Amino acid sequence: MMTRNPKAQATSAKVLITFGLMFAAGGMLLIPLMAFLHVSANETRNWQTTEGKVTTNIVRRQLTGHTARTGRSRFRSGDNRGVEFAPAATYRYQVNGQTFTSSRYGLGQGMPRFREEVEARAYLNDGFTAGSKVTVHYDPKDPSSAVLSIGSSSVFFYMGLFGVALLAAGALFVWLGRRSLWVARSASAAAVGNPVGPMAQPSWPQR
Prior knowledge:
Layout: H1 6-42, E1 48-63, H2 65-70, E2 83-95, E3 98-102, H3 117-125, E4 133-139, E5 142-147, H4 154-191
Antiparallel strand pairs: 1-2, 1-4, 2-3, 4-5
Helix pairs in contact: 1-4
């Protein structure tokens, strides 16, 4: 059986610990950030409302995640499943005699996306045509901040779970790396007759 070089094992262990610390740090940043955004989005339920009017609407053609990353669709040419259509609307509203314009649908969420352009346009035609009246929820502390859809988004929840997974993976990597590093150091020390770590025995002077 071939034994691994202790020096190479120690190097690998340090790399594993480094990645573990990076993952853990990412998780520790992501979890409170998503919690903050979730709470902030839920605060829109208490915002004041006013009547607004849609001024313009548009359907944006966007690449799906796979197509955007690779530059090519997973589907045959001409298949709209390689893209998605995102409707959006701009609306105008007044607060205390001051006019504001916004195109934000919700905090952390936009209008639903569709596989077919005709479906996206049908969604806009059902309540978001130019001149249509909409209920606008605005922040009483900052009337320029407004949304049409209140409440939090499931995106914050799933990103929070991703943060938990990063933190757990980071902790596991650090533990595995420290264990591997101890094994490497023990093997290296044993080779020169000087054991280290919890298993090390005190050396007494010889009479």
